[in-house]
Amino acid sequence: MGSGQVTDWQGKNVTVAGLGVSGIPAAKVLHGLGARVTVVNDGDDARAREQAAELEALGVTVRLGDGATLPEGTELVVTAPGWKPDKPLFTAAHEAGVPVWGDVELAWRLRELGGREPAPWLCVTGTNGKTTTTRMLASILEAAGLRTAAVGNIGVSLLDAVLGEEPYDVLAVELSSYQLHWAPSLRAHSATVLNLAPDHLDWHGSMEAYAKDKGRVYEGNRVACVYNVADKATEDLVREADVEEGCRAVGFTLGAPAPSQLGVVDGILVDRAFVENRQKNAQELAEVSDVRPPAPHNIANALAAAALARAYGVPAKAVRDGLRAFTPDAHRIAHVADVDGVSYVDDSKATNTHAAQASLAAYDSIVWIAGGLAKGATFDELVAGSAERLRAVVLIGADRALIHEALTRHAPQVPVVDLDRTDTGAMLAAVREARRLAVEGDTVLLAPACASMDMFVNYNQRGDAFAQAVSELGA
């Protein structure tokens, strides 16, 4: 079961590690294929018991409160992507010679079930921008008349996508580093690593391990490995990948593109990779104004999406039409309102320093609202690189002192308001302080550079609190 395609699941003893958005569908699919499924889960709360009852009614065995012990007779473990590799369950599986797959690996193995022709996967990973790029890609593919979906870490479940009655032509697949760690057999049509910056190092153990897992997305690519010209680490991952003969390295850049690159010339997104005689010719794809919002990092996302779509053979017109049709998700550099000549922008999704840096780079004069859970991050590079854009800073959240210290070192001239509170009402106070500090032409930017769970359920709730606070400014 470790390497070959499994065609007969009848009677296979499979352990599914973890309930939740990936574990429950995996358990149901495997049970439906005839496997003997046991689900193990660390938690034993009311929600877990409700989920367990649903599975047990189908005939699935569920063990709550014990995710460490490998059930006797296990032939395969299918894990939720967030389970850390050093858990005792995986150590026991390794010692017993039992393979461990993630939900992405399971979907990849099942895509040919029933003899169907599987849809190619166009895969997107990176520290930031994955969701936006994947959704842009799906919009471009749809504009080309293809049946597609944004799947994987977002949107439609990958298992549903590969096992649905009506097959897709091609899939736009967002993959996290966790998912890639547990997907050793994945071989994409084409893929991109958008960028690399320290993130989830507590899970991976080191930056090297994190980058290695991201780089798995390039393994076995058939047509194109798309990399970020401005981020050499992504190109290094392409060089290290073992790809199929004829697979090409294709770069994207915010500058004028060289041959085998996509880039920007005079406000036009252009392709010098998927054209005849790319040494001399370029194909216009879209205008920068077709990208919403036209912030630099989002233009880079659009170029990466366009490169993957062009690798699949999509015409230039579909790139333009798909980008025009794309609507950004909430809380991703979203314009909330203009009040007294000041623009208020919600980028609550900027939960790490790399994302916040991209957001800060999009504006010239900023009153920055930042802070939350730092997740082990440091802020010196972020502050030093953005100091000239900062008019003032309002800090909230548990780890705000870390940002304050970086501001003291690298931007001592910038006024700082340190709100010593972590309740949800702090956002209204922060927005009011930001309004007091801002002048006409400024942007009040929520780009926390931190996770939200010290004060909010998630970044969505944090962004909603910001928007509500802005709406109350005129009250």
Task: Fill in the keyword field for this structure.
475 residues, alpha/beta, nine-stranded mixed beta sheet, six-stranded mixed beta sheet, 17 helices, globular
Structure explained in plain terms:
The protein has 475 residues and is an alpha/beta fold. Helix content is 34%, strand content 19%. It contains 17 helices and 20 strands. The strands form 3 sheets. It has a 9-stranded mixed β-sheet, with helices on both faces. Strands 15-16-20-17-18-19 form a 6-stranded mixed β-sheet, with helices on both faces. It has a 5-stranded parallel β-sheet with strand order 3-2-1-4-5. A hairpin with a 2-residue loop joins strand 12 and strand 13. Helix 5 (130-143) packs across helix 12 (316-325). It is globular, with a radius of gyration of 23 Å. The chain starts with 12 loop residues before the first strand and ends with a helix. The mean pLDDT is 92.
**Which structural class fits the helix and strand makeup?**
alpha/beta
Relative helix content: 25-40%
Distance between the termini: 64 Å
DSSP E strands, number:
20
List the uncertain runs: none
Major sheet description:
9 strands, mixed
Q: Give the DSSP E fraction (strand runs of 2 or more residues).
A: 15-25%
Output mean pLDDT: 92
Principal-axes shape call: globular
> Looking across the biggest beta sheet, what order are the strands in?
7-8-6-9-10-11-12-13-14
Report the radius of gyration as a whole number of Å.
Answer: 23 Å
Helix tally?
A: 17
